[in-house]
Structure prediction request, 260 residues.
Amino acid sequence: MQKRKLGKSNLEVSAIGLGCMGMSMSYGPPADKQEMIALIRKAIELGVTFFDTAEVYGPFTNEELVGEALTPFGGKVVIATKFGIKIDPSGQQLVDSRPERIKQSAEGSLKRLKVDAIDLYYQHRVDPNVPIEDVAGTIKDLIRAGKVKHFGLSEPGVQTIRRAHAVQPVTAVQSEYSLWWRNPETEVLPALDELGIGSFHSVLLAKAFSRERSTRTRSSTVPTSATSSLVLRRRLGRRIWLWLICCARSPKGRRRHLLR
Prediction:
């Protein structure tokens, strides 16, 4: 398995990572816990060192699963999790990146993941009600406190990236990117190259199997994926659509991994 360093940081990850959301939600009933632990550990045997989760996945149960599976591999793997989306009493997902909420989320994620510090902490979606400078400043405080190692953004616009990076260096940006959705090439990827920020690309295949062309904008506050499509489920089967595969890209790196 190839390794890549993200941006100007020293954070090194496998070129292919394992997104764990589907193990706990979204694509049918949660999978058997012990089977998923075995799957995660098998991925490590195959050279995967990067694992992606979020507090809203489950909610909370996916972080617990990832934490239990990876506890024996402390220091040998990189775990990314996310803050900034909460579920209200009605079950609706809402963005919330207020500083006090970020700190509360971090404490919960640390306990569920069974780690002393979060390797890579993403803002899950941009909160229009909270200046990104406040978000970046809060993460800077968490880094100084030793609770977070690296700052990331998920599905941000270019100006958001620049403003956040000016306050706290952004290590990586996560965005949807595939042969069918190449919009990041126009502005986002050039900006990441300029600033020395690494990137992760998700749903590399899923959008191609959507039953209907998605009309959602990429600023949606709810994580989106066409992998819930009945067509995709029938074509790929549960064991494949169960998780998302993310590819890590370093600045100036070649993009041929999309074709692998």
